Amino acid sequence: MIQKYHYQDATWIDLENPTKADVEKIAQECDIDLKTASDIILPANSPRAEFHGHYAHIILHFPIFKRSQVVSSIQEIDFILSENTLITARFDHIEALHKFAKIIETEAIVDKKRVVSPAGYIFFRMVRELYSTLFDELKYIDSWSREIETKMFRGQEHEMVFAISNMSRVLLDLERTLSQHEDVLSALKDYGPKILGSYFEYHIRSVIEEYGKLRNIIKNQRDIMAELRETNNSLLSSKQNEVAKIVTVLAFIAVPISLVLNVFQIESRARPIIGSTYDFWILIGIVLLAGVFLFTFFKYKKWL
Predict the structure, then answer these.
(1) 45 and 125 inside one domain
(2) Which pLDDT tens digit goes with each residue over 284-304?
(3) For position 68, what pLDDT does the model report?
(4) Does 147 share its domain with 202?
């Protein structure tokens, strides 16, 4: 599907799930070479920026976090940017682009202020909108981490082991995917103005600034998760030590009592108490007195 949007002197052509015929048609209209056209159809292994005479071909991967499934995926967007034209191609529905399309249509009608390098301006606004979506996801992750912290101190340390691992995996996916943007944005900063005009440097600097904020937030979240993991492990270890201590104390109480009962089971001619009228109750009393004595002793020593 081909959608076209106009903003001042620039045109944004959005290709969603394009066919080979769609790509060839746009390539011919915008003077795009065959190699670039074929690259649009095929998925790229990693983001990159290539410069071809009058246009730049930019490939970026954006992480998509699906909250309900606690997993993240990657969506690829190809940008072909020239002085007055921006082409985007993707094979997934990207809500941020649909939202941006409505924004740019409205601004094209309402905003009469002239913009230098309008195609570069559209690119800057579009990438910022895509990053803005990730900012929203990180806000959700922040609230998720606070929920984990609350549950962790309510005694749900075992359940939080899996929650912390899931969140760490999501943050790692975000960090791994976005780290590849750095080289692309750096190349655009160095070579973009030569093709798209000197004012494009201003737009790309704004994109880099948004990117830096995003990376810093992800780094902070990963640091928080590392602290939560360490604290959760400490709480688990402390609880396990308490359980081990109680089991050990109970064993120390049970062993002497068991020894007393085993002694009275020895077959011998002279066995005190055994055979008397109240021998059973006397033995029960000895066991109880021994248990109370040992329990009191352990409490006095603050072992319990």
Answers:
(1) yes
(2) 777 777 777 777 777 776 666
(3) 46
(4) yes
